[in-house]
Write a structure and sequence with these properties.
Blueprint (H helix, E strand, L loop, with lengths): L3 E2 L4 E4 L3 H12 L6 E4 L29 H6 L2 E4 L4 E5 L4 E4 L4 E3 L2 E4 L3 E3 L11 E2 L4 H11 L4 E5 L3 H12 L3 E6 L6 H4 L1 H13 L3 E4 L3 E6 L3 E6 L4 E3 L2 E4 L3 E3 L15 E2 L11 E3 L4 E4 L5 E2 L4 H16 L11 E6 L2 E7 L6 E7 L4 E7 L2 E8 L2 H6 L1 H5 L5 H4 L1
Parallel strand pairs: 1-7, 2-3, 2-8, 3-4, 8-20, 10-17, 11-12, 11-17, 12-13, 19-21
Antiparallel strand pairs: 5-6, 6-7, 9-18, 14-15, 15-16, 21-22, 23-24, 24-27, 25-26, 26-27
Helix pairs in contact: 1-7
Bound molecules: flavin-adenine dinucleotide.
The site of flavin-adenine dinucleotide (FAD) has 36 residues, from helix 1, helix 7 and strand 23.
InterPro entries: FAD-oxidoreductase/Apoptosis, FAD/NAD-bd_sf, FAD/NAD-binding_dom, FAD/NAD-linked_Rdtase_dimer_sf, Reductase_C
Protein name: NAD(P)H-nitrite reductase
Organism: Mycolicibacterium chubuense (strain NBB4)
Length: 394
């Protein structure tokens, strides 16, 4: 049976970091109307970075961003375990999975990403992706007794899972078709140093080769690589990237192109619709569209989107992009906009830890450090000022 509720106010679709930050920012900005968070997950909004780190290594189970009292105290209604199925931007309604229709004054899309799977793989137990808490717990349970893991894809998630599984004593093969881990994000030079780090920890890093199939009986047993090699596997983790969770917007008429297309404050292509976080493609300062999949970007966007939605003056919008990744005892950090195609100047390398400046057109555009947090952060002003690379190399 479907019901209709004219809840009105601001409805946030998604139960992750972007939803929580948007709701918090709304109350901080003294918005006094109704706020509803609609999530397809049963959990309170939680933090994802620990899922491939502390949660997987069984060091914590608590990743909740705010306790239930926070939502009660701030009069934020949580509708959990009942995701949005469709959006009608003319009627200003959402239809939820159980058929309930919810009215809104403004809707904020914060539905994040869906991990890519390999369609040709059979549906065997032991094959995992990692995006949510339940998936992390499922992998952790199997890692407890597993001896051999094959990780398909050496992006950030694949590398972090490799590090966590090694710590749990599992033999790990990391398979990456590109010439090095993280090659498409940070380039081959830094990728080579990351491969070195994993090899030093006993990971069998195999680059320049793909996966042609998996096989098993009651569960996965073997992975076959494109060069014909057969690998034992009790666990396979597919870490080949994600795509924006926008299927539910089919038929809404909203412009979607590698995420929900937005202007530079998060306004989508229909009135009263906004998008934030990993699912949102915002216009950048030079008129391009950028979709960022990093934690600190979310709070930055909430500080821009919420004032725009409430018709308030935004605080300063200038911030230097930042992300991190923990692999073993090495915190890899990137500040600015380093790209694989930049000229990379490695200025520190002790055989494990490293620091590199990224140069484009003679200017410093980013810094990437592995185990040099102080030196990474010290570069912030130079990156913000687009200083000549000579200022840092001098
Ligand atoms: C394992 C892992 C490790 C990470 N580590 C790092 C790190 O070390 N450093 C870093 O900078 N970033 C890291 N990130 C990225 C960071 O966590 C994300 O940038 C951040 O979670 C984005 O928040 P979000 O709210 O946009 O998306 P999400 O956190 O994915 O939240 C989206 C929510 O929307 C829900 N949803 C989806 N569809 C619907 C629907 N139709 N209706 C209702 N709800 C829906 C989802 O179930 C989910 O709860 C990591 C991500 C993962 C998965």
């Amino acid at each position: 049976m479907s019901t209709s509720e004219a809840s009105g106010g601001i409805v946030i679709v998604g139960g992750g970091l972007a939803a929580a930050r948007t709701a918090e920012q709304l109350r901080r900005s003294e918005y006094a109307g109704a706020i509803t968070i609609v999530s397809d997950e049963d959990h309170l909004p939680y933090d994802r970075p620990p899922l491939s780190k502390e949660v997987l290594r069984a060091e914590t189970d608590d990743v909740t961003l705010k306790p239930a009292e926070f939502y009660a105290d701030n009069d934020i209604t949580l509708r959990l375990g009942n995701g949005a199925r469709s959006l009608d931007t003319d009627a200003r309604t959402l239809t939820l999975a159980d058929g309930t229709t919810l009215g809104y004054d403004e809707v904020v899309i914060a539905t994040g990403l869906v991990p890519k799977r390999i369609r040709s793989f059979p549906d065997l137990p032991g094959i995992h992706v990692l995006r949510n808490f339940d998936e992390s717990m499922a992998l952790r349970r199997e890692a407890d007794t597993a001896r051999h893991a094959v990780i398909v894809g050496a992006g950030f998630i694949g590398c972090e899972v490799a590090a966590s599984l090694r710590k749990l004593g599992v033999d790990v093969v990391l398979v990456e078709p590109q010439p090095s881990p993280l090659a498409s994000v940070l380039g081959e030079k830094i990728g080579g140093l990351v491969a070195r780090l994993h090899r030093a920890e006993g990971v069998d890093v195999r680059c320049g080769v793909g996966v042609s199939g998996v096989s098993g009986d009651d569960r996965v047993r073997t992975v076959t690589l494109s060069d014909g090699t057969e690998l034992d596997a009790d666990i396979v983790v597919v870490g080949i990237g994600s795509h924006p969770a926008t299927d539910w917007l089919d038929g809404s008429g909203l412009e979607v192109d590698n995420g929900v297309v937005c202007d530079d404050v998060g306004r989508a292509s229909a009135p009263h619709v906004w998008a934030i976080g990993d699912v949102a493609s915002w216009r950048d300062t030079v008129g391009g569209q950028v979709r960022v999949e990093h934690w600190s970007n979310v709070a930055d966007q909430a500080r821009v989107l919420v004032p725009a939605m409430l018709g308030q003056k935004a605080a300063s919008t200038v911030s230097v992009p930042y992300f991190w990744s923990d692999q073993y005892d090495v915190k890899i950090q990137a500040l600015g906009e380093p790209e694989a195609t930049d000229t990379v100047h490695i200025v520190e390398d002790d055989g494990r830890k490293f620091l590199a400046y990224y140069e484009r057109d003679g200017v410093v555009v980013g810094v990437v450090g592995g185990g040099f947090p102080g030196k990474v952060m010290k570069t912030r002003a130079k990156i913000a000022a687009r200083a000549p690379i000579g200022d840092l190399l001098g």
